[in-house]
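Box 3.1 A note on notation
Throughout this textbook, protein chains are presented in two layers. The first layer is the amino acid sequence; the second is a token string describing backbone geometry. Keep the layers aligned when reading.
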Amino acid sequence: MDLRTYIDINGWPAAEKLAEKVGTNRAYFAQLANGHRRPSVELALKIVKASRNEIDFMTLVTAKTKPRKRK
């Protein structure tokens, strides 16, 4: 499953615990889940391991990022 689906199913409290476990925070997790950022391979592996393989590695590292809006 992807990170957005994980958050939708488990909620933000679980996502915050997962973020803390892998050494990041809710804001960065939101950026990952919403397609604004892509995690490093190292962080992606930590997320997969901490989620007990609920979150798919390939989905994390190959996620399409959304272009930033320019002012």
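The mean pLDDT is 91. The chain has one domain: 3-61.
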